[in-house]
Amino acid sequence: MPNYQMGGAFDPTRDVDLQATLKSLTGGDVPWTAVDGVLATGATGSTATALPLTTPFVVTVTGVSGAGVRLEPGTARPGAAFILKNLTTGAITIYAPSMTINTISGATGVVLTATGNKTIIGFCALAGTWQIGMNT
User: Of 46, 52, 56, 134, which sits 20 to 30 A from 123 (CA to CA)?
Assistant: First the structure.
């Protein structure tokens, strides 16, 4: 699996080595679904681009600032996880209609900025509830 970053050579002070991250999270090779270049669209939970239904998954997202991606109902089950990298030049919103993200309504969504490492990790420990963090 390649390392994803915004142009130029891999810089460990700026970029996330997704392969090493996956191995450290799982203790080895796990069959993650990987999708490169999902085009973020829409600006609401119902119009945003749907992400893979199979978890765990790794996704890179392209598109314009203000667009969004959507975690589908049923994906937030205990043990589910994902890593998402924002390759846009602006912020994107991650929606999860009919679920919660970090204790807020998933219909509101959370913003993934285009600064710092532009990467988030999401996981589910309680059905219907996503926990998302990392974008430093």
Answer: 46
